[in-house]
Specification:
Length: 119
Amino acid sequence: MSSCGVRGGFMWAAVRPVYSHINYLLKNMGMDKRDIRTCFRTGSIVKTSEGVDCARPLVVIMRDEETAQYWHDYGRGYHVEGTDSWINADLCRTDRHTHFLLRQQRRERLKASATPKQL
């Protein structure tokens, strides 16, 4: 939810939260306003073939690491019921690769420990 490796001086003056985004987080996600430092959309607006704007990720910088861990369910991702929204950790490339390798190892262990059906 916060950028990997970015510390306190991250362009706070240049990145102003849009209050419609904060209201979305408060109403639909159930977040507390005190937990949010700032938020902003990433990427550029792209239209689909039907002329509808594609959804852009909403980056939320939380007040502390503990709050961020809670909201992205300690790296597993959190699906908000009743919406098509997911909350995921914003990991740097190395962290994403490490998590991917751990998931692969876990799958291999599960396959190896599964007993074949007896005929």
